[in-house]
Amino acid sequence: xxxxxxxxxSIPLEAMRLGLKAFANDLNPVASLIEKATLELPLYxxxxxxxxxxxxxxxxxxxxxxxxxxFPREAPDTQIxxxxxxxxxxxxxxxxxxxxxxxxxxxxxxxxxRLVPHAEEQENKRVCSxxxxxxxxxxxxxxxxxxxxxxxxxxxGRVIDGDEVKAIAQAGGMGEQLYAVVYKRAIQTFKKDGEPxxxxxxxxxxxxxxxxxxxxxxxxxLEEKLPYWEAMxxxxxxxxPTDSNDDRPIQYGMPLWRDLFSPRQLYCHGTSVEVFxxxxxxxxxxxxxxxxxKAAFAYLALALDKLRDYNSRMxxxxxxxxxxxxxxxxxxxxxKWSFVEMAPLIVGLGYDWxxxxxxxxxxxxIEMLHPELEVKKRKQQTSQQLxxxxxxxxxRKQGSVCLSCQSGDALYHIDDHSIDxxxxxxxxxxxxxxxxxxDFFYVWLKRTAGYVYPELFTRTLTDKENEAVANPAKxxxxxxxxxxxxxxxxxxxxxxxxxCRRVLSKDGVLxxxxxxxxxxxxxxxxxxxxxxxxxxxxxxxVNTEAEGSLHIKDKAAANSTIFLVCRPxxxxxxxxxxxxxxxxxxxxxxxxxxxxxxxxxxISGIDLYLACFGPALEVFSRHWPVRR
Length: 628
Known about the structure:
Layout: E1 2-3, H1 10-17, E2 21-25, H2 29-40, H3 46-63, E3 78-90, E4 97-100, E5 112-118, E6 127-133, E7 144-145, E8 148-150, E9 159-160, H4 162-170, E10 175-190, E11 196-206, H5 215-231, H6 248-251, H7 263-284, H8 291-309, E12 316-318, E13 323-325, E14 338-341, H9 350-369, H10 383-389, E15 400-404, E16 419-424, H11 434-445, H12 481-503, E17 504-514, H13 519-531, E18 534-543, E19 560-568, H14 580-600, H15 605-611, H16 613-622
Helix pairs in contact: 3-7, 3-8, 3-9, 5-7, 7-8, 8-9, 12-13, 14-16
């Protein structure tokens, strides 16, 4: 089984669970590392779990002293869940410091923030302090709407245009100000007889206190570390690409990848890379260091990147759920006017949480790939979880995997007609710019995992040029860039499909899944597929998307994914080619026939519209190319 655009590796994972030999490929090195961690490294079994647990504990023990003083101490019964910051600019009219946030909600019960502007004559004293309030009407109005800022000082109140806000940010005038701290406090409960009961944790919010202001010390420590970290290539120095499809970080004064992190976040992440490298060097010097230990460090690198996803200037506080929302809750670089910092060394949070979550994933992967193993956490799982992870009833031999990180149109390591099935979930046209987004992780992973698997991290940034997406940014400055992006996607997908046909056996099958509301996306994919010599033999709509997902909200996506089953098209004579006028009645008849069955299955709306592409393409593909 081959997946030429394997992404995170879910398709080849299921192939392995069925006892098949899987070939998994992706152009993107971040995806390839995830595939390696999903498909290959769990085959080491419980030994890698034990090594990851040992190395994770060693990492925390080594890192802990280095964070002393960068977060204020709290009472033993209090645990900080997050520090909430608002981005700031100076008002160009009165000089006051404006904390920027579209609203000041903290919780669904009305808890929020009231701004207290101090309208002093001295500019450096014109700042806002903050109070926690407990009803929506007491909360202050937002200070940023549609990119336009409103000065909160009563003697000013001017509106700053969005372009001017961006200009201030690009000139280095955008900062951040702590406006609230989220915590939970241990409350001792008592039984009816007066005896102490269980400890109950209660969430709360407080305004910043003087002892929270350690930011000057953090900046000094960061400035002291930066020359060493830059010399040792421990923090990103790469520029955010100016030709990106989404350049909002640059628009708001973050021209380097490391600018997506506040000084304290950057200090924490830089320290984590330094500790990772030191620990790796120590372990490499020990006798017996081998593949299992390298695998454990790969998982540690992924755990550190998981924390970065939840600890950047692009996170946000979800006031309804009262949780931190990660950087990529959407597939873009949406600018956040307020963000959350997570302290890395709080028990059960920070590194503890990221490492524990990564270890949990590893354990579950081993159980899926090695169902005969009794991994220690298996006993703690619910019956529902066990049923989801259970191996097939019929015992099969253990599947194997061959990983590659290269373009899907050049799979030279696979022989002609040697693959029985190609199963793929191809890039979704212009919905997601995978390489652009993955650079957020790549610039850090190459400084950690790159020291374990250097072959994956040879480029400055990920490869956008050879990526099969419809990205107009590739053609910035050229006329009809969207049309050029369409042609580029179609050509690259056709080349990938042609390579799939080369490696596919004569009686093999290609199954792909795709969904997009735009007819241009379907046109590009279908032309590539048909030009590569495939005929579509069956199609099925399958409900795959969560309705509330922010990844599809306001995007050209739907709840259903269309599964297309394809086979190599037999050679046909020139005389067999047909005209569209002859074919149109057949297409109409086939679509109308299938519409009835789709409706009986409960498919309606946009999903019904998309489902009709499948039967129409089935007819088209049998007579391709069609003339007009």
